[in-house]
Amino acid sequence: MKTPVAVTLIIMGALLVMTPALSDCLYQRNLVALMSHPGITSVNLDGKMDDLYRFGCWLTGSIMVGVAVLCSLFVRRETVKHETLATNAA
Asked: Under 8 Å CB-to-CB from 65, ≥6 apart: which residues?
């Protein structure tokens, strides 16, 4: 796997894994900001992210990072194997 592709998979996978946590943090921040206004007595709490969606983000991101790492290791082993064969042949 080419280096830019592996780096992209790792970065995007990490972002997918972090999405639910960032979403919760922003949700709580907006909720607190809304409740701190005078005259606001109730807030609708239906905006939380679904648990299945959370799991999907975590699973997809983890698979993306895992594929990038495994493919990079596989390509490295192949490169080392070819270099060893070339050195032994010479």
From this structure: 9, 10, 13, 14, 17
Query: Residue 77 gets which letter from DSSP?
Result: H
pLDDT band, residue 15 (cuts 50/70/90): very high
**Number of compact structural domains in the chain:** 1
Shortest CA distance to 72 belongs to which of 84, 62, 80? 80
Band of residue 35 on the pLDDT scale cut at 50, 70, 90? confident
Taking the C-alpha atoms of residue 17 and residue 40, their distance in angstroms, rounded to an integer, is 34
Distance CA(82)–CA(17), nearest Å, equals: 36
- 32 residue type, one letter: V
| C-alpha–C-alpha distance, residues 85 and 77, integer Å | 12
Q: Please provide the distance, in angstroms rounded to a whole number, between the alpha carbons at the two ends of the chain.
A: 28
Higher-pLDDT residue of 44, 57:
57
